[in-house]
Design goal:
With 518 residues, this protein is α/β, with parallel strands linked by helices. The chain contains 20 helices and 17 strands. The protein has three domains: 222 residues, 2-enoyl-CoA Hydratase, Chain A, domain 1 (Alpha-Beta Complex); 189 residues, 2-enoyl-CoA Hydratase, Chain A, domain 1; 36 residues, no CATH class.
């Protein structure tokens, strides 16, 4: 056997050992929890045979607490690049079988390398998190490693899509990297995120709570909004991320990929002419409207279980990716509250950063009132959505279906926030407030002065107000609405508007950066 053959054999063996991570027993333990290994996850995520691994032989440099005798090639994270549906992505997957996936300085260097490559080459970066946190044995070096990762998250924000998949524990300082990325996904009953664990919570506050209740996928999907998706399994999680990427461009200088469709641009839906009830206080399902106007009825929702009074997500219209924002009359009558405002603002800003046109479907009676909302800063949070729409320079097409009252009308991509094309259905009501409230304010003295005839006066004045404002024509007369359209034609009109706006050029005053009301 030649020397060269010996060297090749050694390489083959070392690669094989590196692929085992923490060893066969720890891999079995990972499988026993119903979890895949880092490499198995990457194999499922990436196109077959496309993975190019970097830094397979990197080892940690810690010499404290017996770590000098514990060296594993790769040091607990698998990094590299590959393709998803033929499109380049950069990836890192923490390996829980090696030191519990804990972050060392060398692990952070590996992660930072692929993050730098993703930014430099203009491709999405996907992180698969499964880690016990900072490697305690390395002390401040581990904390420095987190800081290096966070800084790259910040520099990459708005330049390349960043996606975090939480496939196991993610605690302490580790949670801030996913929080800085564009989309976060968690797996139910096997992943969790929190700053401090149940034991610390109990010792500090006396509160008894388990990991799932404190920071499980369902909690963060429905209560905090920290995660955008909560998958039932790792396989479903990976499939979700693949579909998400199909709506996104590679970077902020490109457009999202075109998707062929046989759905006719001019398709009409007569059901839309009767979807809005005659009674303005009766609810209807906005999902029916969305599915009617998008290609093939397919809508990919974001933040599905959080702030359900507003709907956000991606779809294709005539093959092109669009972001949908829509009030949901079935939940809290579609009002805007703190969570709905935050949710929609974040989505609008993402779409604007990555050249994805916005289609806004409006049926909003106002902002939610009450001390809980005021004390929680509904003013500032509502301003976030207003700001997001006002600064957005992508094509913006708005359709008011029914109510557009008060400040909520302004916030939902009105003409004055540089809405490009603003349509309304004949059922639209655009006013400061609803008829009942307006009459009580405008004619309070008259109603109080003549209690015997108050009911008749109220109804007469209500009808007068409704004749004036319970239709879209006053707004159309003033040019605040570009056209009143028949509901059945909404798909065609929106697509045609988007085609008109495909070459849109808009600018904002020169500035270092904005000062979004946080």
């Amino acid at each position: 056997m030649s020397i060269q053959t010996d060297q090749i054999q050694k390489l083959v063996e070392r690669r094989a050992n590196a692929r085992l991570g923490g060893g066969a027993k720890r891999i079995e333990a990972q499988h026993a929890k119903g979890k895949m290994t880092a490499r198995e996850r990457l194999a499922l995520l990436l196109d077959e045979g496309s993975f190019e691994e970097y830094d397979m032989f990197v080892q940690h440099r810690c010499t404290h607490f017996g770590m000098d005798a514990q060296h594993t090639d790769g040091d607990g994270v698998v990094t590299g690049c590959g393709t998803i549906d033929g499109r380049l992505v950069y990836v890192f997957a923490q390996d829980f079988t090696v030191s519990g996936g804990s972050l060392s300085k060398t692990m952070s260097e590996k992660i930072c390398k692929v993050m730098d490559m993703a930014l430099r080459n203009g491709a999405p970066c996907i992180g698969l998190n499964d880690s016990g946190g900072a490697r305690i044995q390395e002390g401040i070096d581990a904390l420095a490693g987190y800081g290096e990762i966070f800084e790259r998250n910040i520099l990459s924000s708005g330049v390349i899509p960043q996606i975090s998949m939480i496939m196991g524990p993610c605690a302490g300082g580790a949670v801030y990297s996913p929080a800085l990325t564009d989309f976060t996904l968690m797996v139910k009953n096997s992943s969790y995120m929190f700053l401090t664990g149940p034991a610390v919570v109990k010792s500090v506050t006396g509160e008894v709570v388990d990991q799932e209740q404190l920071g499980g996928a369902s909690v963060h999907a429905s209560k905090s909004g920290v995660t955008h998706f909560a998958a039932d399994s790792e396989e479903q999680a990976i499939a979700t991320i693949k579909e998400l990427l199909s709506f996104l461009p590679q970077n902020n200088l490109e457009t999202a990929p075109f998707k062929e469709t046989a759905d006719p641009v001019g398709r009409v839906d007569d059901a839309l002419n009767s979807v809005v009830p005659d009674n303005p206080n009766k609810a209807y399902d906005m999902y029916a409207v969305i599915q009617s106007i998008v290609d093939d009825g397919h809508f990919f929702e974001i933040h599905k279980d959080f702030a359900k009074n507003i709907i956000v997500g991606f779809a294709h219209m005539n093959g092109r990716s669009v972001g949908i924002v829509a009030n949901q009359p079935k939940v809290l009558a579609g009002v805007l509250d703190i969570n709905a405002s935050r949710k929609a603002a974040r989505f609008v800003r993402f779409c604007d950063a990555f050249n994805i046109p916005l289609v806004t479907l409006v049926d909003v009676p106002g902002f939610l009132c009450g001390t809980q909302q005021e004390y929680g800063a509904i003013i500032t949070n509502g301003a976030k959505l207003l700001y997001a729409y006002g600064e957005a320079t992508v094509p913006k097409v708005t359709v008011t279906l029914r109510k557009g009252y008060g400040g909520a009308h302004i916030v939902m991509s009105c003409k004055q926030l540089r809405g490009d094309i603003n349509y309304a259905w004949p059922s639209a009501q655009i006013a400061v407030m609803g008829a009942d409230g307006a009459v009580n304010v405008l004619y309070a003295k008259e109603l109080k002065a003549d209690p015997e005839n108050a009911a008749a006066v109220f109804e007469a004045k209500k009808k007068e107000y409704e004749d004036l404002f319970s239709n879209p024509y006053q707004a159309a007369q003033k040019g605040y609405i570009d056209d009143v359209i028949e509901p059945r034609n909404t798909r065609f009109r929106v697509i045609r508007a988007l085609e008109q706006l495909s070459g849109k050029r808009a600018s904002v005053p020169a500035k270092k950066h904005d000062n979004l009301p946080l």
